[in-house]
Amino acid sequence: MLETKLSRRGFIKASAATAVLASAGTVGFNEWSKEYVKASANTKIKEIPSTCNACSSKCGMVGHVKNGRLWKLTGHPDHPYSKGKLCARGHGYATVVYSQDRLTQPLKRLGENKFEPITWEQAYKEIAGKLTQIIKEHGPQAVALTEDPRASGKFYSPRFINALGSANYYTHHVVCSNSRDAGFLHTVGVTATSADISNAKYIMFIGRSYGDGIRPSSVQSLAAARDNGAKIVIVDPRLNNTANLATEWLAIRPGTDLALVLAMSHVLIKENLHDLNFIKTYTVGFEAYAKELAKYTPQWAEGITGIPAADISRIAIDMGKAKPKALIEQSWRGAFGCNYENSTETGRAVAMFNALLGNYQQKGGSIFGVKPHLGKLDEQKYPNPKEPEAPKAGKKEFPLAYEGSGVATIVAKEALEGKMKAAIYYHSNAALGYGNPKVMKEAFSKLDLVVAIDVQMSETAQLADYVLPEVTYIERDEVIESLSGKVPGIALRQQMVEKVHPDTKPIHEIYTELAKACGVGQYFNFSLDELNEAKLAPTGITYKQLKEKGTIMFPAEEITIGEMPKVKTPSGKIEFYSETYKKAGYNPIVEWIEPKVSPANDSFRLITGKQAIHSHTQTANLPILMQITKDYDLERIWINPVRAKELGIKDGDLVEVKSSEATSKIRVKVTERIHPEAIFVPSHYGITSKDLRTGYGVGFSYMEHVPFDFEKWSGAGNIHEVIVKVRKVNS
Amino acid sequence: MARYGMMIDTRKCVGCYACRVSCQMQNELPVEESFIKFYEKETGIFPNVKNEIIPVQCQHCEDAPCVSVCPTKATYTTAEGIVLVDSEKCIGCKYCMVACDYGARTQNHETGVVEKCRFCSELVAEGKQPACVTTCISNARIFGDLDDPNSEVSRAIVRLNAQPLRPDLGKAKIYYVR
Fold it and tell me: Residue ranges of the 4Fe-4S Mo/W bis-MGD-type domain (chain A) (predicted)?
């Protein structure tokens, strides 16, 4: 069909150019339709199931490939996150495969923004030489690797850094969910539960917005819950895009969510609406927590949060009555992923509130998912790297942080201190996204070696000594992804089209070859297919079957509602009181903690959040998505009309945003949808890499304004602990 | 013969633009050209605020002004009520753009043709749904036969009392719940 259509369009274009009436001597629509039907009957459109890479959800999708070119995508019907749907990012990010700004060959840095193309052989040899030298001089603990994990990366990246003798493996969670993860881990034993949204009767979201940070099945579930009459409360300083599906908006003062949860917990206990049976059976430390909660009255919380005490009481009571089909959704970054000094404790209080409701493993409540039972490589044939001797850098400073993610910005801190000497970044734009870009740049300059593996010249790649070009996710096979949830399953990312740029390589090849060059090739003596076959072995599914289906679920292994699994905390129970905290020198009981900074009458708190069309900074360079930003002026900051009026600012005006760290110019959206104390800036803009020609120069990055900092509990980035002043300026 | 139409429940729309991008890829549109536009309407005063998001595309009017004004009959209505453009006949005069009450027509700057939503007629012919419906993450869109009282779309329109965006402007075949 496409060919037919394209050739026809080409004809009209030519016709229009020569001012010839296009109607003369051409086929009409009906003939064309018949032609199309005939053509599509003869030209096979290949449908290849795979997984998305536009965000961390990695939804199942199907690529429609015609004549070797990716045409369009549809959501995979069997995948639990997509359920047949894809969001705008999911569709649009796939165009990265044909981006004009792809990295096409390995690059070696010559100076500021100066690179020369080199061969893979030279790149491997020089990188391996430097890594080996650094390890010899400073030990393997001076080497680190950071990524935004995807299926292959999750397997190969830690294996690679461990093979070098280092435990320093980090993920992007330091500016995503490090706080929530730590809070949940030390309360319910897992970094995140999931939620049975479609069956819930009362749902509260704190900062989390299904309509902005999208997983299509979550939105479908929420729409279904609303159809079933559920109460849906959004707690957010801004009326986010999930609002249409909500029944109530609590416009909370930013940074005070913990006070709200503490007060609601207070009300539950005071009104005797907590689930005493559940608490007795499955938890420890309730009495101590209840004692602490006594002082957190709704009146107290009203003074802090700005939410009327009557509303706090009403909602807590209604949730108590709706239990166990009532919950506070577990969130990701939301309001307590990495935002405030009190975020970890907010996460802990949320997990505890759900325990007070006794909603764990209940219909309409919080769910502990199950993982699929997958196989492993035979260790006799394929030896694992030895356990590194030195602990992961940052573990000493942040013992409560989830070790699997670590505290990625510790790499920058130790670089500045002269302790860290080499850093590898894979699918990670740490230089712009993880910490203040000025500090990150300074830190990178202290490192003896920075390697970036990416598909485009990100700000991180720009600062690297070596840039290794990967194929995009449309052009590669990956390690089998395990899906945990109510029903476990597996999904496979697979190649849809031939490599567009011949000198790019998939990540598993890059790690395997680099390991060989580093002298640790013995830990990578298997092929991707061998690895995937080993993983599949216990499932009874063949690799061929998985390739055909893309996503396979195991309904026989579904969790049993009402059956609590063993809680993976030290006590084996949900912990209202944490010995782990106590041993690490933290308060074992959640208490109110002030945010680190607070705005004055003439300043604002700068807050950020996702937009449905973008993901981190990785999508800003894609014309199909950035055009939406341009069409609807989505890069603007939000300001409340009362504050705008005081400052003489009108909708669309250009303003200067000034913090302790930076000054930015941007246009404003004056809207009632934002708390007067806050300025909202979407988190995807401010690309400074001139090699990203579409994204460059649109909007500003909130991270420029965030002081380089670590939250005391989880080491997260405290990305909302920022005060700014705003004034109108002339262009 | 079916008479195709759509219902959009704006109360479910989260303004995610998935329909726009999916449509652009399905129809291979240039990135600047979109068949679906989004209007936002904010009402109330902080903190009692409502934000309505209204996606608008060709309404496939039964009495479509773009059809009647087209000087070359490039715009026409199929037997199934889908308003289409024969790009072979379009001379790019933009009369239809002026005539359309919904601002639903856009000129393709690569081809000069003034295009618009086609209800993905080739997918519909295969018994599939338009791309915007298939991908809608909150199931806010329902497509089907308006002449069949038992179709999902007909039943939903009745149940939710969905109305055309501007009933005063003609007989549109996209019904909105607001």
Answer: 45-101
